[in-house]
Fold each of these.
Amino acid sequence: LSVAIIAVLIPFLSHAAGRGGGWDARAEALRPTIKKLRSLHKPLGQPAPGEWLSRHKEPGQTFKQYVVQQPIQPSDERGIIYILPIGAFAEDQRKVIELTSEYLSLFYSLPVKMMEALPTSKIPPGARRMHPAMGGEQLLSTYILSQVLKPRLPKDGCVILGLTATDLWPGKDWNFVFGQASTRERIGVWSIYRNGDSSASKEAFRLCLLRTIKTAVHETGHMFSIRHCTAYECLMCGSNSLAESDGRPIAFCPECMAKVCWSTKVEPLKRMRKLAAFCKTHGFDPDYKLYSKQIAVLEGKAVE
């Protein structure tokens, strides 16, 4: 069984980075924005055989459900996203990490800080293996979450993300995983191993960057108590394969976007302009067009 993204969702705990106070004026102010943007987003249809929702029956999560259930949020005391590189990276892979950190910061309107890299030699033999069918080293994602990331989360960190170029697997009966996160601990790990050879060409670099961004944003969303989306084609949808993940935008649907804006206290239009500029600069044309349409709608302009 191979799974693109696993999320260990244990939300609404008392030691969260921040606690919501129920439906409030900020939440109410976002409702018109959600309504205006709905027509730009494709509703999620029936899953094809093998896709995430064909194997995992999930209820989804509306913006209202998110707010009233007191989700984990960043706060003044815990407002930094930390990234811990694990293992060695080639020059082009380091560039992927840098740009992913930039997008992550723009997406969640939070500062991102890179920590000193941890060599893979620090991972014990019991948390490493050779892939049983394909060969190649893998690291145990659950070990990284509990033994590497959890004790290293700084006091001012809202979340800590481990990033590695080594393949991951989450334990017995699993083949591999692109990323895994724990809402309870505000920790997550993801790998760029299966994202393509970023050194092969400009297009290969762009694809690797796009895939890495998607996993990083998705996992961080889980750590802010955002569940898998079941309403729209959205980056918070679950993915059961690389092909399924590739079909998702790097944007959130209106409901999930509102969760981010409410949690981080950021104005949607200001945020979208920054994300659109990033997508334009790095050649993410479909996502640039989507953000541009969102901006136009919120500015009261006609959209073709």
Amino acid sequence: MGICALVTTYNSIEELRTWMAYYQLQRVDAFIFYVFTPYPELYRAFPAMIASKSLILVDFTWPRLRHDIPAILNIQNAQMNSCYCEFNFFFKYLFFCDTDEYAFSERFPSNIPSGILAARNIFPRYTTFYVTFL
């Protein structure tokens, strides 16, 4: 299972470490960070994860199309589409999540892939699930 997120310099290294540790406990195999602003500290903070391909950094700097809304909103849908198109064949499941969001299942408290499999067994025709956070 891969988890895809948009990352900027607004995300501190410690925030990212904590977030990744949580999702490693949830059985996420790899993190795909779409890097919206140049962030060389990522390479210094996570060299072993980058070398093992458990952290994939994608340069996703590109011009803003609209200046009347926050930059992150210009990019996030494109980032999700790009991640799906680029990585859907490498992982059984792709999970899209912001770095300030933590998904949890009461039925599968430490196993997001099992929760996804259970949902697929209940709804076999669906290939995409959208979860809202309360």
